[in-house]
């Protein structure tokens, strides 16, 4: 992104889009019973509450009545339909893992099969976005956790902790290309999860080769454990590479969430919060609900001078439902330099 003079002035920045992640597949309801919804009615109401607090994008997973993360796409259909009816303006983003929670005690935490995740393109009603991971990676979720983050939770149990510590994200090139193709055919936007500069560069190549022809909407996922560590240097590396036409949301975990979000807000980026990422307030004196975390970001955004995006503004900025007809149009719309012309060497230059 080109950071021109005045880029920190709020009048030169977009309204803020807050993504809420309230469904938390890595936690059990007993970890935070006041805020982890279990019944379908509770899960639908949680979406409404997040929207009313200021979130415009809902990162969606689903629970079964026993409290475990659901791996049934019929449950996703049910929740999406319920949210569409109760909160029609909310942008629905389905988590591409479906649920990585262990199915039984002592089982591994793992992402579902390639074929199962491909079926997200067949959800009815369809979501606005599905998150798409790029490049297989370690996903050692608790690496950034302090022992105090785990105290009194299910993840303090050694077998549960180890299950998440050893988790892998499978996202090899063939799977990613087919997944993007199916989502695009269904009119669903790919929301790219970029864990580091390498996964971002792979997304750029997918666009330059015509695999994905749509708006570049992405999260920088700074949770450590095989992904970027949440610090200023890694953030700057991503921001420097991302083209001006992209929509970039920053994401972290544990007490890193607020700090990374504040840096992102100051720079004109967008943010994500919720108990999927962090259970605690900044002093760890009590747990913080997803709604409380959204309200906190909304207060800080007001002090920064950045208004919260309206539903219409968020949908326009994210270009929901927009796809392009050619590689050239895709690159230009997203702010990338054009592809090289044949054997032309040297610096890429845009046509005047």
UniProtKB/TrEMBL annotation:
Keywords: Metal-binding, Transferase, Zinc. Pfam families: BKACE. It comes from the Bacteria. Its cofactor is Zn(2+). Gene3D superfamilies: Aldolase class I (3.20.20.70). GO terms for molecular function: 3-keto-5-aminohexanoate cleavage activity; metal ion binding. The keyword Metal-binding applies. This is Uncharacterized protein (DUF849 family). It comes from Roseateles saccharophilus.
């Amino acid at each position: 992104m080109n950071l021109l003079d005045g880029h920190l002035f709020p009048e030169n920045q977009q309204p803020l889009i807050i993504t809420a992640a309230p469904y938390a597949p890595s936690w059990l309801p007993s970890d935070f019973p006041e805020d982890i919804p279990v019944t379908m009615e509770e899960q639908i109401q949680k979406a409404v509450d997040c929207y009313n607090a200021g979130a415009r994008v809902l990162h969606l997973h689903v629970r079964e009545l026993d409290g475990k993360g659901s791996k049934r796409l019929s449950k996703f259909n049910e929740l999406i339909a319920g949210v569409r009816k109760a909160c029609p303006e909310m942008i629905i983003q389905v988590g591409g893992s479906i649920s990585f929670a262990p199915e039984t005690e002592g089982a591994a935490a793992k992402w579902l099969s390639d074929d199962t995740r491909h079926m997200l393109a067949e959800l009815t009603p369809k979501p606005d976005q599905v998150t798409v991971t790029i490049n297989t990676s370690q996903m050692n979720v608790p690496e950034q956790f302090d022992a105090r983050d785990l105290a009194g939770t299910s993840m303090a149990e050694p077998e549960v902790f180890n299950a998440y510590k050893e988790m892998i994200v499978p996202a090899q090139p063939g799977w990613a290309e087919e997944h993007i193709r199916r989502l695009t055919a269904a009119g669903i936007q790919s929301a790219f999860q970029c864990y580091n500069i390498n996964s971002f560069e792979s997304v750029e190549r997918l666009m330059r080769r015509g695999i994905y022809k749509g708006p570049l909407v992405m999260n920088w996922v700074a949770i450590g454990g095989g992904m970027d560590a949440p610090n200023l240097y890694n953030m700057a590396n991503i921001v420097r590479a991302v083209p001006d036409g992209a929509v970039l949301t920053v994401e972290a975990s544990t007490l890193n969430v607020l700090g990374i979000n504040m840096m992102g807000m100051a720079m004109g980026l967008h943010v994500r919060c919720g108990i999927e990422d962090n259970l605690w307030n900044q002093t760890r004196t009590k747990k913080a609900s997803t709604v409380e975390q959204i309200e906190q970001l909304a207060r800080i955004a007001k002090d920064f001078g950045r208004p919260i995006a309206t539903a219409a503004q968020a949908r326009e900025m994210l270009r929901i439902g927009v796809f392009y007809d050619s590689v050239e149009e895709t690159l230009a719309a997203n702010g990338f330099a054009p592809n090289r012309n044949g054997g032309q060497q040297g610096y890429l230059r845009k046509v005047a």
